[in-house]
Amino acid sequence: MTRESTAPVPRREPELLGQTVVVIGGSSGIGLETARRARTEGADVILAARNPERLEQAARELGALSTSAFDATDPDALASFFNSLPTPIDHVMVTAGAPPYGSLLELSPTEAQRLLSGRLVLAVAVARAARDKVRPSGSLTFMGSTAHRRPGIGEGIISTSSVATPTLIANLALELAPIRVNLVAPGFVDTALSASLLGDDLDARREELRATLPIGRVVGPADVAALAVHLMINAAITGATYDIDGGQQFVA
Fold first, then answer.
1. Distance between CA atoms of 155 and 180, rounded to whole angstroms?
2. What domains appear along the chain, each with residue ranges and CATH number?
3. Contact of 49 with 96, CB cutoff 8 Å
């Protein structure tokens, strides 16, 4: 009788070992899952979000280096946060900000201007504040959307923003080079935010997506986090928009 020998599985070194990842919007959902994924790849994480209680809970879970509670849409608070970082950082992930829903004609001009420019201005403000803190080999990753690229009643704000953001990201990639800048564009993601937006319709939406999406399941925060961390690791990617919606845009 011979004993079968099995070759040892080579151990993979964590690919973000010794690096620091900042997640703005890191207390829940996609941001928290991205921070968790970055930790499994060996990174230290710094978390920022509005809600101090959720932020501290996330920090305890992940063993974060530090936390900061502030409104990322406040440019002064954002600049102060980056100025306070003690050492150069490697990557920044931004998931902060609620989807800007609203009818174009029913909003006041001031509110329409605020919502239309919100995500675009946030990306520029982060880029400006981070450029002297991020190492040349590092990256910025922002969030977009595939679910709202088509015009729709009540979605004039978010569809306009969704179409404009990839162009902005490409321009930022040129201006910030060699720091890389990329965009992750999900469709529906099964998060607490989605639950709050859909309310009693959440389960029906989940079932609809399971029945229609080519992947046969609903996209979760871990799916998006895996892509975000890949964009941190792969130093050949910049100015790109990566869709991650399980094929939703093709069957909507």
1. 30
2. 20-192+220-247 (3.40.50.720)
3. yes
Q: Which long-range contacts (CB under 8 A, 24 or more apart) does 158-163 make?
A: 158/99, 158/100, 158/101, 158/102, 160/116, 161/100, 161/115, 161/116, 161/118, 161/119, 161/120
Report the greatest alpha carbon distance in the chain. Answer: 83
User: Contact at 8 Å (CB) between 177 and 218?
Assistant: no
Q: Could you tell me if 141 and 183 are in contact, meaning their C-beta atoms sit under 8 angstroms apart?
A: yes
User: Chunked in runs of 10, what are the mean pLDDT values of the chain (252 residues)?
Assistant: 60 91 96 97 97 96 97 93 92 84 80 82 95 96 84 80 93 98 94 80 90 94 97 98 93 76
C-alpha–C-alpha distance, residues 234 and 230, integer Å: 6
Kindly write down the DSSP assignment for every residue of the chain, as one continuous string: ------PPPPPPPPTTTT-EEEEETTTSHHHHHHHHHHHHTT-EEEEEES-HHHHHHHHHHHT-SEEEE--TT-HHHHHHHHHH-SS-EEEEEE--S------TTTS-HHHHHHHHHHHHHHHHHHHHHHTTTEEEEEEEEEE--STT-S--TT-HHHHHHHHHHHHHHHHHHHHHTTSEEEEEEES---SHHHHHHHGGGHHHHHHHHHHHSTTSS---HHHHHHHHHHHHH-TT--S-EEEESTTHHHH-
Neighbours of 192 (CB within 10 A): 12
pLDDT tens string 94-132: 998 666 777 778 888 888 888 777 889 999 999 999 999
**β partners of residue 22:** 46, 92
